[in-house]
Amino acid sequence: MSTNELQEAISGLQKTFKEHPEKAIVDYHSESSLVDGFRSDVQLRQHRLIVDEPKAIGGKDEGASPVELILAALATCQEISYKAYATALNIPLEKVSVKLTGTLDLKGFLGIDQSIRPGFQHIQGTVDIQSSADSKTIENLKTIVDKHCPVLDILNKGVSVQLELSDKEKERKIA
Amino acid sequence: MSTNELQEAISGLQKTFKEHPEKAIVDYHSESSLVDGFRSDVQLRQHRLIVDEPKAIGGKDEGASPVELILAALATCQEISYKAYATALNIPLEKVSVKLTGTLDLKGFLGIDQSIRPGFQHIQGTVDIQSSADSKTIENLKTIVDKHCPVLDILNKGVSVQLELSDKEKERKIA
C-alpha cells in the first residue's frame, strides 16, 4: 500500500468515525485451548498461534510464551502507530524497529514469595527510527505515538479484566 | 510430558529458586521491524511472528493485530497457569479452554476524541474447565490461578514501560 493509499485509509476512518462514532467500537476475540503439557493453540479470526513455555519452565518450546506475546504486542503496536501517525502527519519514515526487554521474577508466578508480583517488574526498550526528518520532528512524533498507542495505554494504565468459569461449571455447581 | 514429570519440573523450579532466588529473575526479549504497510515481523528467541492490521484498518491482514496478541497472551497464560497449579496441587484437569473479548474504541487510537482511551475499554471472558474435581475445588483453583497468572497481573495492575529513541537518534540530535 502506497503512502497516499494509507493516508486515504486513515483519513477515511477518521471521517467515518466522526460521522458514526458507534462504528469505531470494535470487539476483538480470542479462542484457545491447552492441547498438551503447557502448549496452547490460539485462534484469532483466521490466524492461528502456537504458544508454549520454554523447556526450562517445563514446556516443549513449540511457540513463544505468553509474556513474550505481551512484548510482541507492545513492539508491533508501537511500530504500527509510528507508521500511521507519520503517514497522517506527512513525516517521512523509512524504517521503524523496536527492541524490548521485559524482566520477570518467577518467584511470583510460582508462589514462592508473595511480595513479588507475578507479572513483569518492568519493560524497557528502544525505538530505532530511520527518517530524513529532523530530531525535533521525530521526538514530537514519539510523543504523539506514545499518547495514542493502544497497547502502551493498556500496559501503562492496566485494563479491567473479568473472567468467569463457563456456564457448564456453573451448572455443575447447581447440580 | 506426564503429570509426574510436570510435577517434578515445577517442584524442581521451586526448590532451585528457594535456594538461589536470583536465578528466578529472567529477561525476555523481543526484536521486530515494520516491513511493509502495517505489517511487522517479530523475533522472540527462535520463534517468528507476523503481525498486521485487518484490511478495514488499512493493513493486509497477514497476521493477527497487536491488541489480539494481548488477548492471546492472557488466554494462554491463564491456561498454562491452570495446568501448572492443577498439576502442583494434584487436581485433575482434563481440559482448559479460554474465550476472550476485548472491546476497543478506535476513536482513541485515531485521536478523534481525547477523552477515549486508546487501549481496551475492558476484557471479558470465560474459562471452560473439564475436570472430575468438585466445583469448590475448581473455584479455589481459579482463585489461586488469578492470583499468580503473570499476564493477568500485568493487565490488572499495569507495568512500568520505558521507551527511548535509539542512540542513533540521540547522536543525530547532538550532531
Description of the molecule:
Two copies of one chain form a homodimer. With 175 residues, the first copy, chain A, is an alpha+beta fold. In chain A, helix 2 (66-88) packs across helix 5. In chain A, 42% of the residues lie in helices and 29% in strands. The mean pLDDT of chain A is 94. Chain A has six helices and six strands; from the N terminus they run H-E-E-E-H-E-H-E-H-H-E-H. Chain A has helices at residues 3-19, 66-88, 106-109, 135-148, 150-157, 167-174; strands at 25-36, 39-44, 47-51, 95-105, 120-130, 160-165. Chain A starts with a helix and ends with a helix. Chain A is globular, with a radius of gyration of 20 Å. The first copy, chain A, has a three-stranded antiparallel β-sheet, with no helix packed on it. The first copy, chain A, folds into two domains: 1-64, no CATH class; 65-175, 2-Layer Sandwich (GMP Synthetase, Chain A, domain 3), CATH 3.30.300.20. The longest helix of chain A is centred in the middle third of the chain and has 23 residues, at 66-88. Chains A and B meet through helix 1, strand 1, strand 2, strand 3 and helix 2 of A and helix 1, strand 1, strand 2, strand 3 and helix 2 of B.
